[in-house]
User: Fold this.
Amino acid sequence: MATINVVNVAKRHQFTWYEKFYFYSISKGLWITLKHFLKVAFLKGAVTIEYPEKKRQYSSRFRGLHSLKRDEQNRERCTSCFCCMWICPADAIYIEAGEVTPERQHLHPEDKFAKKFEIDLLRCIFCGLCEEACPKGAIYLDGSGEMAADNRQDLVLTKERMMEKTGSSILGQRN
Amino acid sequence: MVKIKIDGLEYDVNEKKNLIDAAKDVGVDIPYFCYHPALTVVGMCRMCLIEIEGVPKLQAACNTPVKEGLSIITQSDRVKEGRAGTMEFLLANHPLDCPVCDKAGECRLQDNAFGSGSGKSRFEFEKRNIPQEEIGTNLIINHNRCIVCYRCVRFEEEKVGESNLGLFERGYHSIIGLAKNEPINHNYQGALADICPVGALLNHETLFKSRVWWYKTHDSVCHGCSTGCNVHANVRDNKMYRYMVKENFDQEMFFLCDKGRFDLDWMNENRLLSYFENGQESVSNDVFSKLGREWNDANSIAILGGAHETNESLSTIKSLFNSQDKIIWEARVSDPQYKETEQVDFLLTKDYHPNTRGAVDIGITTSTGVNGIIKDFNSKKIDLLFIIKEEIPEGIDSSRMNNVVMMDTNLSNKISKVGYAVPIQIFAEQGGSFTNKNGLKQEFEKGMKPVQGLLSSSEFFQKILDHAKLAKEALVHGNN
Assistant:
């Protein structure tokens, strides 16, 4: 049986006369550079963006910083049921429950609320289990992925930092 | 024992028991809300519906007497439909706020809705909404969650002997309320919240502190008084959170008073964890070597207290002292311990020590009692006085306070008064048994982990004896 498509590599590649002419290969390489330059400079074909000034749209399934939601009447959805604290595999959530007094009843749908709600970002592994466990649709990891800080205190999300200012009927943006 | 037929199978059951309990004994669960083994039967919730052979309509199991030849069916489609219907009615006005409710996790309504409910409701109107009320010094009622099972009213009337709670209005408007103008302030508000099968009655003191499923449960005995009620001790993160009743049919223990139930903070907070000498913090080594020398020098040593200790701990300490005849030990320090048991109410006794009887049974008594010891101590017949987790008895001369060694579990102003204060473990960190007022010896489990290095009282005495021996040997060698 005859062997097919066999290249003899034992023999060195023989340059043709124009390959031996040095300028040909140089200009071939420079043309590639020039092509990309023209594309970016005149045809706006860049694949990168100027990151801190311009930002891309995240996927709706991206899990970033946590936010606490409000309902249609602008009341806090969280009723401090401790389900997220319980399910959290990294032990990142700390909640302190309080009883709702008549003065603040307009802020809460039930008679129990979270006096303290803290998420330690250094512990959080962004698994999204808290979202899943929440029976009220109060917590979602729908924020950005930027969370750098230069001290530990800034890496603990407090209720004030997570709570949305306005409410809506949509229970988060997951689908 | 009589023979009855449940779902076609014949069982031997105790005819003195209620049908629900009798069936439970042989492994047949009948769901219920209003039935309670220690209270009268009213048959108000209609959850325990069963078919009885020969009776055309569904009957309530709690109201059916157990008799020879009774044949019941607990699992037929008719029974299931009846129970699902009851469940749907009970849930018609229920707010379904389990995430907020403290009862969630141990709620009968949850259990029975899963077990017998249909899973959907046809009630499409707005649910009844009555604001929450404070009805006791430590009790709130959430009317929306109430299923009108009448347990709280019956308990108050039959066990506590007060009838402040009552059922008002009728039918749809039925509401549990106060008959008198004053709030409930008896010793059984925790028990009221406990027997409530749903989250309608709740205690202020434990409100929103934790969730039920976080607790690790240990079988234990209440430390509050000499009755020794059986409890489930709920521990979370090595902190004692609450006591729940452990039903004991043999001893007819079904309730717990507030005195024992809510007296738990001392186990978690304000604990004595370092050694003190003359009111100043010291080191255990210094304290032990000094105590060892004082032990040798003393001609007579007295120990007061021990009724908070377990039987095991007491007998260990007693066996340590077998070879030492200079020790007298009196466990009874308060008047009620010397008398016959006196009840404050149907559970609580006047003796707030859990193990007085155990200490007496082991023989930790003296003929002169605590007053004799104090007299001898003041007149310097006794050189060293140990007090095990008791108040400093009245009548001790302030000049003799330097010779008092206080073994305690909690920080207090007593520490600055006495010569030495040493930390010891609490009963829940040891496990063992208490003997209650009737001489019943009840075992309990170790529920909490002691802080590392914290000694139990028996280990403490062992260590003192070791140090005393060392000091004696050093003296002998020094003389040679």
